[in-house]
Amino acid sequence: MNNKELITKLAERIEWSTHDVTEMMSAVTAVISSRLVDNDVIGIQGFGQFEVRKKAERISVNPANGKRYLVPPKLVAVFKPGPTLKKQLKSLEEDE
């Protein structure tokens, strides 16, 4: 599902115009982004949490030429699903 499809589904579900949903989604992503930049954890009940983690430096090997490279440490945004979402995904897995 891409961004346009998500906005359309949300607009249908909460009976808002797509323009209003687009503005709301922009505001939500702006708030989440700014809180992650401040190194905060954002928890959404029933969904999960977003947080920033530091990936350690590591050695990577280029498979084409076999050369080894040092990849420096970096900060990455990660998502950890909550128990409700995990339960829903597990029930889907069991149905297959």
Count of the domains: 2
Tell me the β content: 25-35%
Provide the gyration radius in Å. 19 Å
Shape: extended
3D structure, described in words:
The relative contact order is 0.11. Helix 1 packs across helix 2. This protein has a three-stranded antiparallel β-sheet with strand order 1-2-5. Strands 3-4 form a two-stranded antiparallel ribbon. Strand 3 and strand 4 form a beta hairpin. By secondary structure, the protein is of the alpha+beta class. It has two domains: 38 residues; 56 residues, Irregular (HU Protein, Chain A). The protein is built from three helices and five strands. The radius of gyration is 19 Å and the shape is extended.
Secondary structure elements and their pairing?
Layout: H1 3-14, H2 18-37, E1 42-44, E2 48-55, E3 58-61, E4 68-71, E5 74-81, H3 83-95
Antiparallel strand pairs: 1-2, 2-5, 3-4
Please provide a brief summary of the model.
With 96 residues, this protein is α+β, with helices and mostly antiparallel strands.
